[in-house]
Amino acid sequence: MKAFLRAFFLPAILFLLLQTSAAASNPGRPVPRVVLLHSLSAGDYWTRQTTEGVVAALSEKADRAEIFIEFLDAAGQPGRLGGENFKNLMEAKYGLLPPDLVIASGMEAFNFAAGIGNRVFKGAPLVFYGLERERYQKLVMNLPATGIFSPSPHAFLLSAIGRLHPGLPVFFITEPSTSGMMNLSRFSEGASELKEEIRLAVARDYSPGALIDVIKALPSEGAIVLSSLSYGAKEGGGTAEDGLTFISQNSSLPVYTLDESGVSKGAAGNLRWNGFKIGKRAGEMASELLSGKPMAEIAPEFSVTFAMALDYRQMKRLGIPRDRFPDGTILINDPLETAGRFLPAALVYAGALLVLFALAFFLRGRINSRKRAEKELRKITDNWKTLFQYSPEGIVIYDESGAILETNKTFRSIFAFSEKELENAKIQTLLPWSRGTLRPGDFFPEDKTGVREAVIADRDGAPVHGTHLSFQIEEGRRKIYCSLIEDISERKKIGELLRHKSRYQQSLSSIAIRFLLGPDYGEAMESSLKEILKVSGARAGAVFRYSGESRLLVPEAEASEQPEEPFLTRLFPSSPEETIMWESSVLRDGGVRPVTFTIESGVLNFRNPWRRLAANGVSSVFVMPLAGMEDTPGILVLADPDKNWKYEGLEADFQFLRNTLTAAMEHHLDEISLENNRRVAGDRFAGVITALCQVSELKDMSTSGHQRKVSALAEKIAVRLGLPGETALAVRYAGLAHDIGKLYIPAEILSKPSGGSVKSLSHIFLFGSKSSSLPEKGRFIIRIRPGLQAQVPVPVP
């Protein structure tokens, strides 16, 4: 075993040394110089996080880079004088050898790098992070710069406090320092964005004597925001961390701060910045620029990386329910979370203590007795064998002839071999290599090779997706080889599921666009069903809606892949009894979750619908209720969908599909209802006009049929002139009602033999909104000489 370990590890160590030596001996192109410029001091927690992220990204992505970290407070003075001193410092350091790239962290660093620092750094490209998009987007467009915008953390904190304590005042406590006034300015800007008021309470320092007067002056209700915690203190003044602890212990008002260590110092809540993430993304952008990618191809991004961290005990004391917590809140001191978080650690510590106890016992026994020492040494050897046997990678060791010398349990498990079956076995005949992409010759490399993916057939010919690495571990009169094989089938499966989910989400987007942009509801519904069939792999699909109070299932649309596939609209039940059966199966307990029914032989004996579906080759049915605002307007049915198309993680996507189909169906039903109402109103109006026309003809039988003839002739003229349908309809009604004035003239006058003068009395005039015959606001104004008038409503769409 010792010979095996020496032969296995020594070549690996030598390989790493050779790689390191080769990298150092290849100078290549000049090393790019990158300046990381910070707005805040080196002691700031967020600054340290982002620095680690930038360095990590440049180490991973960039070939080689020399990083210089600078802080704006390096000159030692704030304000304009400090900026001038810092400029002089940067000119002294980078005037002769300017950087190739500048990364600016925060607003002040960006202002310097984009302003006077741009001349100092000789116009080097700029990557920024921690800027507010609303304030700096236009400025960035005019600079050779890109980076990451973020919302104002001050506004974010104030918004969270407003949600936790609605209607209560917010008090900002700070000392009269440059950083304190800077924080006050940013909080004031955030308050103006949220249209809220923040009140100032200034303490001369963070000592208890200065803070107690401020606390006493505060009202009994409200919330306190403490300025960012400093990492130093004036003589006798105390630090902001001490002040936070003092305020938390002596005030009943909750205290909030931007600093990540706030809750640990007694605050009710603080921000979690996650600076490593945003720093790493900025470093990746910088690496792309250093690799030669044009600035125009790296667009600025927007990212929200921070969240609220709240002390659960203080939230409970203040009576704030969980539904008022901001989205993404991290609860500190939550009993459930604490138990779940510390239980694994406690188990690990207990295990570690047991291991330490065993080691102590082992050392004691080694000292007391050489025989016990030898026994423990054999135990260690057994442990190494255990590590070899239970390695996550399959390991096989063999000689130059292919004879297998040793294998571990993982290897035997991957290919379903027993230890006895591998005795006297050879690599060349171990597996059906012709059914995969790996060949026996790949197990005997002459030189060093890398890890490669391959498809390996197991003993039964089933494909196994894995990685393979072979190398020589001993050379002499007898060559010994080792191969490492890792089964990555599960990883491949997860990747396929992710790709499936991406395709599914794209299909959902196209379905929603069809309903938004498609002019025809039926075509949009049918094309959407075809898209769903592609994603689900179903043979056929249909959408049904519930009809009126009877709640019968009425086909809305259907689609199938092949003409011979079953038509669900014909096979699905539509009688009241069968509809009740489906509702009791799908909508039980008031839920709207999708249900998949498997048609088994036992069900066919007593359920008519199942027999009808099974007779047409359907083996399973997927039913998704469409949940409306008040009830369930219908269901989506798929015949024989693919078994793997619905899996964990698609709940939100299924909800989106359900909402899209429901909204489209309800909108279509609303349009049909509106059209029916308009048609009924038009029919009623036409009936009123016709009745008035008939009454008028009864009073003057000599002109019977005259009004209908005038109406028909006028309508034909309007159609011939190409007037719109609404206008032609109005002309038709006007013709029927043009002699309506006869209703106000006695019958004996209308029947008078000298009726010429009477007709002039019954003449009427129709006036529209202008000089045309069109109605104004849906009414005809009818004047009957002399001086009599009436308004008749006309439905104009």
Which descriptors would you attach to this protein?
797 residues; alpha/beta; 7-stranded mixed β-sheet; 26 helices
Distance between the termini: 94 Å
Which blocks of ≥5 consecutive residues have pLDDT under 50? Answer: 1-26, 755-797
Radius of gyration: 42 Å
- What is the approximate shape? extended
Structural class by helix and strand composition:
alpha/beta
Strand order of the largest sheet: 7-6-8-9-10-12-13
Number of helices: 26
Amount of helix: 40-55%
What do the pLDDT scores average to?
76
Number of strands: 26
Strand content: 15-25%
> Mind summarizing the main beta sheet?
7 strands, mixed
Summarize, please.
46% of the residues lie in helices and 18% in strands.
Describe the structure.
46% of the residues lie in helices and 18% in strands. By secondary structure, it is of the alpha/beta class. The termini are far apart. The longest helix is centred in the C-terminal third of the chain and has 49 residues, at 651-699. The strands form five sheets. A seven-stranded mixed beta sheet has the order 7-6-8-9-10-12-13, sandwiched between helices. A six-stranded parallel beta sheet has the order 2-1-3-4-5-11, with helices on both faces. β17 and β18 form a beta hairpin. It contains 26 helices and 26 strands. The chain is extended, with a radius of gyration of 42 Å. α2 (45-61) packs parallel to α11 (275-290), α7 crosses α8 and α16 (489-517) packs antiparallel against α17.
